[in-house]
Design brief:
single chain, 386 residues, alpha/beta, 5-stranded mixed β-sheet, 15 helices, 8 strands, 50% helix, 17% strand
Length: 386
Amino acid sequence: MKWKNKGKQKTSHLTVNGRLEFSRAVFWNENHGTVVPMDILLGIESSNHSLGVREICCRETLNNAFVPASENIKRLAQLDISSSVVRQIVEHEGSKLSRAQHKSQTGPDFKAEDCTDKTLITGTDGVMVPLVRQEQKLKRRKTQAAKRKKEKRKSTAKASRPRKGSDGPYKEFKVVAFYDKNKTHQYVVGTSGNHKIAGRIMRRVGQKLDISQAQTKYSVSDGAGWILKQYNIQLPMLDENILDLYHFREHVTGASYVLFGEGSKEALAWKEEMMEVAKNQGSLVMLDRLAECLKNLRDDDKRQELYNLREYISKRIAMTDYPYFLALGYDIGSGPTESFCGCLTKRLKGSGMRWDKDNAESVMALASIYYSNQWDKYWKSRHKAA
């Protein structure tokens, strides 16, 4: 196989130490096309920005929009990178990481046996993310085209089929988390996919953690039907699936408002009484108390509210045995999972922000490795690979 030497060509590459410009030999043949050995050796064949520069862009945009991130990078690192280029770098790197996460090419850096008391807890939740609607995209394109025409300049975008916008202003993303009692080990990943994709993430991460080797393993969630179904299918070895006490309390609080009026002393007293029964005596006893309340009610709306509460609890008897869970020292709150949801979507929910679904998932992926305490490890592995 003969290679044709196309001579030396100049290239420019931005590094954390400044811009690097040099000439290198370029080769070509009809089977493999163009190859630049020096670029491959230096790890710059796929980008004009070094890994160090790309890491800085990704790190700075964890908590900042692209424009202020670009300004901060210029001021603090003396790297002149436009906000549009920062955005492209972040979306590209996040997309690469997201694909690796979904293919199980990356994962937690600990095992179940490393967790405190060999106890592994998992939680899953849905969180709404603002997306760009199709009509917003069309309006934006029209505005940009008019601006370019006025400034007498051409579009720099690559020729391709325009991307379609979302059919609604918000979509539910899924967050799957694993952590131990002391939160010294934690791993979280997000997806824009449906409940089945979230379920596959549960299974793959559970396998990497060797979850079956944990001495104690259970889930704490808001009790949504799809979450419980996926845990039963994907992680059937879990000892328990617990309904988060906060969400249980929300339903009891809602019933108290209907029965006695929102903010009334009677509503507060009834709610506290029912919660005390649930925590100390169990949900079965609470169902008996609710049945007694029904006997004394004649108002149809109030009776219906109590029927709804009883039905909600009846479907989750196994998830609401709080005296048993507390006796075993289990967590009965999903605070860590709720916190992860906030952390992974904080960057996505800024004022006026709207996202394409895949780009939102890319930003979420970068946040996930940061809040899984894997940021340094991930980028070091990328440097070694380069």
